[in-house]
Amino acid sequence: MSKKNTPIGVGIVGLGRAGNGMHRRDLDARPGKFKIVAACDVIKSRCDAVEEAYGCATYGSFDEMLKDPKIELVDIATPSPDHVPMTLKALRAGKKVFLEKPIALTFKEAKKLERATKGRSKDLFIRHNRRFEEGFQHIQEIIAQGLLGDVYEIKLRRHNYQRRADWQTIIECGGGQLLNWGPHIVDHALRFLNGKVDSVWSDLRKIAAVGDAEDHVHIILKGGGKKTCVVDLEISGGVALGEPTYLVYGTKGSLVEKGEQITMKYLDPKQKLSRTRASRETPGTGSGFGAAEKLKWVEKTFPIKPKAKLGCDSIWDHLHASIRHRKAFPITLGEALQVMEVISLARKGTPFQLA
How far is CA 266 from CA 27, 152, 160, 222, in A? Predict the structure, then answer.
């Protein structure tokens, strides 16, 4: 059988919420493309459960797992501080790597991945799976249609209120919203700006979480090239009444996404706007605020349903196509490095700055 038609042998390291809960589920849904051949975790009971489910080899040592010749792809789903050291070891062992976010704790650390993959760019793949989130995909499609005109501001929100107390609230463990939801939403912001950023402003706070890491993140990015746009993103575990997930403001209309519904209000494309000039004259009685004409609006609400029909788990299909059929993987290391650069800039000068 041709290698193109054989499933990719996967060794998962980290059998916690991501590896055991998300990665296993997505891999199980693609039996013809991937096969779990090994797993590694420091907690033996987790390994035992995976061994029983798949009949695969299990390891308590990552170094030992890397010696397994059946493993073609190492799927790293361990806590954040392990991501760079484990990736470097796996690459040195000749394995391909699928790396969970965040790719590193800092931009400086992330640059080690860039140096390690020179000449081997097709061996490291980044799991920024929210790139394929249906809401994000649908809104990109709407913006491309031009109905909103030139988009000049976008607000991205992920709000809840939670007195979270696990390792992801502790700075030393790589916790905080910047490294949790941050990579996903910063990636969205950068895509909206076409990867072009002129300025970064941030405000980080600890509001409700029990640990010492930030649980409220507010970042404003300005850029986008010739048509300047501002992306205002907020990720918080300290907001009891949240805002819509997406708000998009354009020169011809606006968009709001909340609760799996998109609401749009935009100028009727059939209406021809008159050519007029602003007047210095005093408006007459009853003339209101001097509006040039009565505007015709189109208003509609509809469910999130992008034409692309991808979904977050489709990143695995892209991964398979890249490894087996040499197709370009849609998330580049350069894009992931830019995400980490923004995250590090957002931390700079705050109590949550990392070395």
Answer: 42, 14, 30, 24
Give residue limits of the domains in the chain: 3-131+313-340, 133-310
CATH architecture of 133-310: 2-Layer Sandwich (3.30)
The fold for domain 3-131+313-340 equals Rossmann fold (3.40.50)
Tell me the DSSP string of 247-304: EEEETTEEEEEETTEEEEEEE-TTPPPPP-----SPPPTT-TT--SSPPPEEEEEEE-
Of 88, 71, 164, which is closest to residue 124 (Cα–Cα)?
88
pLDDT confidence of residue 288: 62
DSSP 8-state symbol, 37: E
Q: What single DSSP character describes residue 20? A: I
Please name which of 82, 8, 94, 84 lies closest in space to residue 40, comparing C-alpha atoms.
Answer: 82
Q: Is 301 exposed, middle or buried (0-12, 13-18, 19+ CB in 10 A)?
A: exposed
pLDDT digits (tens, 9 = 90+) for 158-211: 999 999 999 999 999 999 999 999 999 999 999 999 999 999 999 999 999 999
Report DSSP state, residue 122: G
User: How much is the pTM?
Assistant: 0.95
Residue with tokens 């992920």: 158
Q: For the segment 29-79, what is each residue's pLDDT rounded down to a tens digit?
A: 999 999 999 999 999 999 999 999 999 999 999 999 999 999 999 999 999
Distance CA 276, CA 294 (A): 13
What pLDDT score does 285 carry? 67
